[in-house]
Specification:
Oligomer: single chain
Shape: globular
Number of strands: 8
Radius of gyration: 18 Å
Strand order of the largest sheet: 1-2-3-4-5-6-7-8
Number of helices: 11
Helix content: 40-55%
CATH topology: TIM Barrel
Distance between the termini: 51 Å
Number of domains: 1
CATH class: Alpha Beta
Length: 251
């Protein structure tokens, strides 16, 4: 069973956070906090594939759902993260239909795609899982394209139409920089709404990332986003620590 796909199929929106710290305890704490899912961040963290593999094992053992944000679109990254047991991959900076299609094919077995068959990996229970079950579950891996540019916004509907992408994800920080506007600009809001509308029209889940703002996260969920990412483990730790120190010194 793909834990993240199950989340996408339920009617209630899901809340998740980024994992940037290469420690087992961080994953345990985020799961204990009650997050529906985690995204292990290989794009903006010092984590290695070995660390990601360990954190995926911990997440799966605890019954949690974990995606991996790959650092680039290389089929090798897609292959290795799915072999390690990720429920799916989040691909950053997807700007065109052809890029989305290529990423999707990298995550699917033949004849639909070009993912290599590796049943002796964690995804195949190290060779102890029936081949048919391994193949079927592999084809249920979730592929998410992250939209972070105007080109990506314009191509969003086409990406969905390829049938290779399971969800789209808006990255507001990079999108605002790409557009040359502030994070609270009307133009950014319009582009974000455009991606969401494309997803809603096609019946495809749409996600978004924000900071540590639960009220805004809830508001975005009400607008139609299926999953919302809030803050990250490192910032949550640092902010909590800073509040403790500040509270002590200001007494």
């Amino acid at each position: 069973m793909n834990a993240f796909r199950t989340l996408l199929e339920r009617p209630d929106p899901a809340i998740g956070t980024w994992v940037k710290l290469p420690t087992v305890e961080s994953v345990e704490l985020m799961m204990l906090a009650g997050f529906d899912f985690l995204v292990l961040d290989l794009e903006h963290s010092p984590m290695s594939i070995e660390t990601v593999s360990t954190l995926l094992a911990v997440t799966r053992a605890g019954g949690g759902a974990a995606l991996v944000r790959i650092p680039d679109h290389s089929p090798a990254w897609v292959q290795r993260c799915l072999d390690a047991g990720a429920a799916g991959i989040l691909a950053p900076h997807v700007d065109s239909v052809s890029e989305a299609e290529a990423i999707g094919r990298s995550a699917r077995f033949e004849p639909r795609g070009r993912r290599g068959v590796g049943p002796t990996s964690r995804a195949g229970a190290w060779g102890m899982r029936p081949m048919r079950e391994y193949m079927d579950e592999g084809d249920r891996a979730v592929v998410i394209a992250q939209i972070e540019s105007e080109r990506g916004v314009q191509a969003a509907a086409g990406m969905i139409e390829t049938g290779e992408i399971d969800a789209l994800f808006v990255g507001p920080a990079d999108l605002s920089v790409s557009l040359g506007v502030a994070a609270d600009s009307d133009l950014l809001a319009e582009h974000t709404a455009s991606v969401l509308e494309a997803c809603v029209t096609k019946g495809v889940p749409c996600g978004i990332a924000i900071g540590a703002d639960p009220a805004k996260a809830a508001s975005l969920a009400r607008q139609g986003f299926s999953f919302v990412m809030v803050s990250n483990d490192a910032t949550i730790l640092g902010t909590g620590a800073a509040q403790l120190v500040s509270g002590f010194r200001n007494k």
